[in-house]
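USER:
Make up one protein:

ASSISTANT:
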Amino acid sequence: MEQKKIDRINELARKQKSVGLSDEEKAEQHILRREYIESFKLSLTGQLENLYIVEPDGTKRKVAKKNENIDN
């Protein structure tokens, strides 16, 4: 996510606490927050897909989702 969008999220949050937001600003805030959350989820998923656990015997196994069983 672009830094200017993050800055705008923070700006709207500060304004919401001080004077409140108009309906248009609330809608903009909601859209920006959803975009931020989706960006965060994609980034985290990408990191976890490349994560391996090193067992005490030195073998590596890929981290899998709870409902998946991957043996690598």
User: Anything to note?
Assistant: Residues 34 and 40 are 10 Å apart (CA to CA). Residues 23-49 form the longest helix (27 residues). The mean pLDDT is 90. The longest strand covers residues 52-54.
